[in-house]
Amino acid sequence: MQAYDKAIAGDANIGNRLSLADIWVNKSALLWKLRRYSQSLESATQAVAINPKSSMGWFNRGLALMALDRYGEALQSYNRAVNLDPQNADYWTGRGMALMALNDNATSLAAFEQALKLNPSQAQAVMGRNMVAERLKPKPPTSPSK
After folding, report:
1. What's the CA gap between 45 and 82, in Å, rounded?
2. If we measure between CA atoms, which residue out of 34, 35, 85 comes closest to residue 59?
3. What 8-state DSSP symbol labels residue 15?
4. Residue 108 to residues 16, 30, 85, 114, 120: CA-CA distances in angstroms?
5. Closest alpha carbon to 82 in 109, 106, 104, 62
6. What's the rounded Cα separation, in Å, for the pair 139 and 145?
7. Which of the listed residues 21, 38, 84, 130 has the most CB atoms within 10 Å of its CB?
8. For 79-125, what is each residue's pLDDT tens digit?
């Protein structure tokens, strides 16, 4: 963590804004892996404040928000990532996961399908698609109780 903090301090003095945003993105990813989700969110938010076109920054922000059960905000971040890089299957999968958490099953299924068009072996998209497909299956009618 100290290496990231030193890099941030060094880059802040140089003024290389895109490089600084990338450092914040990487710090966010590390904090997420360490399950320090609030700090991960703060770092990802710093990244997109510096570079609003950082698709990875928006994606990392979505990951942190999902971990904090803030699904609506996560969806907004994933939407930004998808808009910036619509060819990234991970971004579509994140979008699908947020939509699934919000019980928007039909839209979630479409996001997972798009992810799988881009990367047919994306395991989380396969899992999400299967879960949502199960949710969308018609329920058998229940018989009245006697």
Report:
1. 17
2. 85
3. T
4. 38, 27, 18, 10, 16
5. 62
6. 17
7. 21
8. 999 999 999 999 999 999 999 999 999 999 999 999 999 999 999 99
Kindly list the structural domains of the chain, giving each domain's residue range(s) and its CATH number in brackets, ordered by start. Answer: 1-85 (1.25.40.10), 86-137 (1.25.40)
pTM above threshold 0.90: no
Contacts of 93 (CB under 8 A, 6+ apart): 111, 112, 115, 122, 124, 125, 128
Name residue 106's amino acid: A
What is the spatial distance between Cα 27 and Cα 101, in angstroms, rounded to a whole number? 26
Alpha helices, DSSP H, located in 34-101: 37-50, 55-67, 71-84, 89-101
